[in-house]
Amino acid sequence: MLRRIDTEMLSSMVKEHQCKQAKKRDVQENKRREACTAASELTQALVDHLNVGVAQAYLNQKKLDAEAKQLHTNATNFSKQTQQWVNLVDSFSNALKELGDVENWAKTIEADIRTITTVLEMVYKESQEGSSE
Question: Distance of CA 41 to CAs 38, 50, 53, 54, Å?
Fold first, then answer.
């Protein structure tokens, strides 16, 4: 009989131990699920936070690209306009040179005409003097 009581008591203790172990497993499983859920929420929050930064960086990059394109267009237009000014100044410089050449030519012609006039006057005076003699 003592053995039977010991067996029943032992059996009862085993059942009690198994119940406690099952409760501990349930508590641990609940805590594991909560930890997994918390970790998942934290990961999602971190990803969302990083995505905001990435999205802002993307928008900034798009703005920079648009501004760089506009700057390139402006620089190209400025270069074309500068080349037009250079061409205009070159044309003006050439026109001034031509005027200088024309002025030099006119002075040469004027000097030649004065020489001819002087010679003609001398010839006329000599012919007048020769006819009065």
Answer: 5, 14, 19, 20
